[in-house]
């Protein structure tokens, strides 16, 4: 029975705590930690882990591989937060730099999870991104007041899950009719945060952690080297702790309070990590190819390219009869795939200044980490996805049910008359233009810019979101 299993799990946690108090187990708890371990909020956190994290783990064990690996890291993160919650109950509220050092164990585990999404995109990329992005929710523990630069803990958990839900929904859609274990994992991951972690924070820490007024002083960050007599300007902030994405545009509000604390945790890295040099070809005034259909040139796709990427040799091959892989193609304007069918997928990775023609119907197309890449395809059964790209153009000559653009700057989408009803999804992207054919055969293409800014107004007990339009002179 489910109720019996839950009761047994709670009893096991209680027994393990009593054993730790009685025998120490080689690492006995201090008096303050022993009392905190029996605190109602800690017991409730253990219930959260056994019920919700345990459900995610059970589903992951049926899947295995990278999904199980990232789920184990989720367990590590929640274990790290439990230890911090116990320490908070016997520690005085630290300074900003001291808090950064205090939260470092939590940060270290999250950084380990983030590395799983780096490099070549795996078949379980959506699982990994959903899991890693969801871990931002555990930063609620850093809330120290209304001036700390963070939302209230409850709101922070809800907002953090919204970032992860984009990828979690992709898992649900992809495996809805294929594998119930993946669907169960995605549903369990969402319930871990909504209602799991949200309701826990709401019940025990709605205004953030409560630090001890008489406890020990938290360990401060290591002292900095003595400053020279010459004053030095402040360094630019490093990348945010809980995100592996590129730095936000300069128009974003500068980080204050706790957001700056998270940035300081990764102090071991150079402050210029993640900054990009703006070259002439990236400036809008130098763009001369704003309109027109992608030209693919002659069919010479099977010839190896003389240009090699530092990431590896160029590839254009069919793997296991199911997946076309196009990698590290540099300066090739005439790549062609014409021997394909509706059961095959196409994965394009790390290409630059190239154009690929896909002649025929395929199941799925993914364009990942490409720059100035052009893709022309006829029909796609499932979706065409553009991820982590810069300055790409995609032309659909037939039909495509879904086109998604994620974490991309500069994307031109050309639709045919048969693909005007396609569903276009964008996330964390800018400069997205969609070009559609005119009414007549000789009419010009119509260009439509998708909004990247939105206004949110609270009306009738809910927020109403509308796109922001700009009228230029």
UniProtKB/TrEMBL annotation:
GO cellular component: cytoplasm
A Gene Ontology molecular function term of the record: adenylate cyclase binding
Spans annotated as Disordered: 220-257, 285-314
Alphabetical list of Pfam families matching this protein: CAP_C, CAP_N, CAP_N-CM
Positions with biased composition (Low complexity): 220-230, 240-252
Superkingdom of the organism of origin: Eukaryota
Family recorded in the similarity comment: Belongs to the CAP family.
Protein name, per record: Adenylyl cyclase-associated protein
